[in-house]
Specification:
The complex is a heterodimer of chains A (about 325) and B (about 350). With about 325 residues, chain A is α/β, with parallel strands linked by helices. Chain A contains 10 helices and 13 strands. Chain B is an all-alpha fold and about 350 residues long. The chains are: A alpha/beta (about 325), B mainly alpha (about 350).
């Protein structure tokens, strides 16, 4: 059963008086118990999708979608408070910058206990429910591998290191027992041991509790080891999505191929001291988006037809939008 | 924490020493006789003169003189006024509480009005409420305080007759001086018609308080508005929304503390402008405070009074701001010693 179903999500931003499509017809389907990776360069709108899902976008931006449902309920038409309740109960977000998303003036313990919903305590009175929340909070911290819970709950966000902070964010995300965790680049700027701990933690949470995870990152190496399904985003357009293994084995879209080629660990045949391949140019700014396929100016396979936005095509469970996909060469 | 306390005490002591040195130098810089400027005694009969010279050590070098001056200050022997001949220590002790009282009420009023309005403006950022409050604040910001005081007197005291024109309390009542703060004195005194006297003192307070508070309120409103806008746009507020807290919970649990914490020192700084404004307003309302007294002293070239009055006011400001700063420093968890917790 699919948890989150987004079809043709378009987000328009007012840039200096004219409306620019920051997200252009993005499709995203997340199934129960699945780790879904959302990959793209920085500036491709990954975080915007996350914010659009949880409704943390400014009011003045225009969001339209053919379909944006959470287990059959339409997210776009429901009232703000209903949506907040739903997000509080079912969706948790781990943000890019763990320190920035914690209140600097409250201790971690206070913030964690604030998140634990009253419904998860059996006791109804204030004092008993308080002590029960304390117990639940300690349990949560242990679950994410923080052993010294007292010290952690006593300290302020600026006093602990980044990776502990990120573990703490995961504990906060688990507090409401959600169905879906959205991890927005959770391993950003961490060294490799801390990173692997966080990734293992997320994988374990997925396996043990049947939680779905939307894993947003540009770290292909991390994603490929844990994700089941991947959506590649370029400049606000979803370029290709499909099963992780299939995608890695046979990418259909030139951008996905370029992305995979740019990570040396995916290329076993790479001779030493050879230049790493990368696409020319950089991701365009919002003010200067190309028409049609936005990869056009950088694409090695671009032709005249690419000024028209390509339609989404599918090969089994593998979706891509390109006029001249890679597998056509082989025919 | 002890280190912080030590540092602030050190700072206060040093600043006060510098201030006292300036006030001592004023005795030399003012026109006229140094001895007269220091002691306030103007008619010199020779025997008296010798005795005074010995007391202020005028024959020794300047640092010894300063040391004796400090000792005198510490003992409360601040010399006497040219004009009244009264000991200056008592004069200051009489007038300073009146000023502190007035400024405290004005500060409280401007906090009580400015902070909530600032929050409203910040939360209704870029909407009509915000614009209305901002334009009001520009108005309050640009009205000179003495002009506002005059207008208030004209409308409410002379035209409408709602409030008394000047002074602290009606001449009908005799309140013994205990603390120098009129409302406290009334409460502590044993006059029979206490509530009536309190009401009278209160009515005397309203106009001067309002005319001082107007400016400070607008400043506090603007500072608060800016800080609220900044705080509400920060990541952790957005994150709190994304965690499913509603707007009220976000504001009360995370917004208010974080918005006020960074601006507390700025708000405390307003006390200085407020005191300056209070001095002007005191003259207009004949409020028996230190500003009124000091300005009279300036008119009459009462050099010892100017010297001591300046010292008293600046010492008050220094001690007040430093205390507030210290308090903020101690309660702000962000400033507390960073311990990298290895968990």
């Amino acid at each position: 059963m699919n948890l989150l179903d987004i079809k043709n999500l378009t987000l328009e931003i007012d840039v200096a008086g004219q409306w620019v499509k920051a997200l252009d017809k993005v499709n995203l389907v997340i199934f129960e118990g699945q780790i879904h990776a959302l990959v793209g360069e920085s500036g491709s709108g990954k975080s915007l999708i996350v914010k659009a899902i949880v409704g943390a976008l400014p009011q003045r931006w225009r969001i339209t979608a053919d379909r944006m449902t959470w287990r059959g309920q339409n997210l776009l038409t429901m009232s703000a408070s209903a949506r907040r309740d739903l997000i509080r109960n079912d969706i948790s977000v781990i943000f890019q910058n763990p320190k920035g998303s914690l209140d600097p003036l409250l201790t971690l313990g206070e913030q964690l206990k604030e998140i634990i919903p009253d419904s998860s305590c059996e006791a109804k009175w204030f004092w008993p429910s308080r002590s029960e929340k304390q117990r639940l909070a300690i349990e949560l911290l242990h679950r994410v591998g923080i052993k010294d819970h007292d010290l952690c709950m006593r300290s302020y966000p600026h006093q602990i290191s980044n990776d502990v902070c990120q573990k703490f964010m995961i504990a906060m995300a688990l507090a409401s027992e959600p169905k879906l965790i959205i991890a927005d680049d959770p391993t950003r700027g961490m060294e490799i041991t801390a990173k692997s701990q966080i990734l293992k933690l997320l994988t374990r949470v997925n396996q043990v509790r049947k939680l779905s995870i939307l894993f947003v990152s540009h770290d292909l190496l991390a994603i490929s080891s844990m994700a089941h399904y991947m959506t590649v985003l370029y400049c606000g357009q979803s370029v290709e999505s499909g099963n992780m293994l299939q995608l890695k084995k046979r990418a259909l879209h030139p951008y996905t191929q370029a992305l995979l080629d740019s990570a040396p660990s995916f290329r076993k045949d790479l001779p030493p001291k050879s230049t790493l391949s990368s696409l020319d140019g950089t991701i365009p700014t919002l003010q200067h988006l190309p028409t049609g396929c936005r990869l056009g100016p950088r694409c090695p396979r671009a032709r005249r037809e690419c000024v028209v936005v390509p339609a989404v095509r599918r090969v089994h469970e593998h979706y891509y939008s390109c006029h001249f996909p890679l597998h056509w060469d082989k025919i | 924490m002890n280190k912080v306390l030590l540092r602030y005490t050190n700072l206060v002591v040093l600043t006060l020493l510098v201030l006292s040195f300036f006030s001592f130098m004023l005795a030399y810089l003012f026109p006229g006789d140094v001895l007269a400027n220091l002691s306030g005694v103007q008619q010199h009969d020779p025997a008296n003169l010798e005795q005074l010279k010995a007391r202020y050590q005028l024959d020794s070098n300047i640092f010894v003189q300063y040391w004796y001056y400090l000792m005198d200050l510490y003992r409360g022997d601040w010399g006497q006024s040219f004009s009244s001949g009264l000991p200056l220590y008592e004069e200051v002790a009489r007038t300073l509480p009146a000023s502190i009282e007035l400024s405290t009420y004005a500060l409280l009023v401007s906090f009580a009005v400015g902070l909530p309005l600032g929050f409203i403006a910040g939360l209704r950022h870029h909407r009509n409420t915000d614009y209305a409050l901002l334009s009001m604040s520009v108005l309050g910001y640009s009205i000179p305080v003495f002009w506002l005081a005059m207008i208030l007197i004209l409308t409410f005291a002379l035209q409408l007759g709602w409030f008394p024109l000047s002074g602290r309390i009606s001449l009908l009542y005799e309140i013994p001086r205990v603390s120098g703060f009129i409302l406290l004195d009334i409460v502590w005194s044993d006059v029979s018609n206490k509530s009536e006297v309190l009401l009278d003192a209160f009515r005397h307070l309203i106009l001067p308080t309002l005319s001082i508070a107007a400016f400070t309120t607008t400043v506090i409103l603007r500072i608060t508005r800016r800080s609220v806008i900044e705080t509400m746009n920060s990541d952790y507020i957005q994150a709190a929304y994304a965690r499913g807290l509603n707007a009220r919970q976000v504001l009360f649990r995370h917004g208010i503390r974080n918005a006020i914490m960074p601006i507390l020192p700025l708000l405390a700084m307003q006390f200085t402008t407020l005191l300056t404004n209070a001095m002007i307003v005191e003259v207009i309302f004949s409020w028996p405070g230190i500003g009124n007294w000091l300005i009279q002293a300036i008119y009459q070239r009462d050099f010892p009074a100017i010297r001591v009055g300046m010292l008293a006011v600046s010492a008050l400001v220094v001690i007040f701001t430093m205390t507030i700063d210290l308090g903020i420093r101690l309660i702000d968890p962000k400033k507390s010693k960073v311990e990298r917790v290895a968990i």
